Amino acid sequence: KEHKILKDIERRYFDGVICSFSHAGINELMPLLKQYTPVTWYTDKPHQLPAYPLDVVYTDLVGTGELAVRFLMQKGHQRIGLIMGGGPGGRAREQGYRKVLAEYGVMVDDALIVATDSASLGDNFLFEEGYRSMRILLERQLHFTAVFAVTDLLAVGAMKAAQESGLRIPDDLAIISVDNTLASRMVTPTLTTVDIFPFKAGRIAAELLFERIDGQSVGQTRNEEVGYELIVRESV
């Protein structure tokens, strides 16, 4: 679907484009950039294409996973399940999970990892995948005291499955995620999560694009990093 949208954009005239992908990357952007259409790309790391009108807004998604899992470790959890979504965002947060476990000398137990195919799908699907993934973890009858779900909606689904199984959150099971969406504040208990500041990212992306369109910026790619912050609530 992303490839089709990019092809459609290439065939039309736009003053500029802001984009973020679950699957596509720089190679898929190149035909558009070769038309010298200004592009601001929201992704997970900096890029440099000095000959083309590209600017990048990025969040270190590996770092968001590290922050979430490190917080669990600091709270004394070592047997930590992982519910990961599809696409590069889920894989990046999985890297953060694995990195922190290695730092603490904890072996990764692949039986504690459930992968979903949740990239670019709707909210209901994410919730259902989180629910299904937690049920899988519980049915494996393994010992774990915490779960890192890579998005809030996966975490909310996981919380429902855990609570239906009689587990108390956070007394029996801690749950943490990334996004800080409205859902994280509406569930009971409220969800500890990592805020990635999407509105700030959108504002910066728009500013960079308009500066490029207006001719205020020419030449090499500008890279602007958007930080992230742990939001401690009741689920850990």
| Coarse structural class | alpha/beta
What's the β-strand tally?
Answer: 10
Q: Give the helix level as a range of percent.
A: 40-55%
Biggest β-sheet strands, sense, barrel: 6 strands, mixed
Mean pLDDT: 90
Return the string of H and E elements. HEHEEHEHEHEHEHEHEE
Low-confidence stretches: none
Radius of gyration, taken over Cα atoms and rounded to an integer in Å: 19 Å
Beta-strand percentage range: 15-25%
Distance linking N and C termini: 37 Å
Shape: elongated
What does the model show?
The protein has helices at 2-10, 26-34, 61-74, 87-103, 123-139, 152-164, 182-186, 198-213, and strands at 17-20, 39-43, 54-58, 80-84, 113-115, 146-149, 174-179, 192-195, 223-225, 229-231. The longest helix is centred in the middle third of the chain and has 17 residues, at 87-103. The two termini are 37 Å apart. Strands 5-4-6-7-8-10 form a six-stranded mixed β-sheet, with helices on both faces. A four-stranded parallel β-sheet has the order 1-2-3-9, covered by helices on one side. It has 236 residues and is of the alpha/beta class. The protein contains eight helices and ten strands.
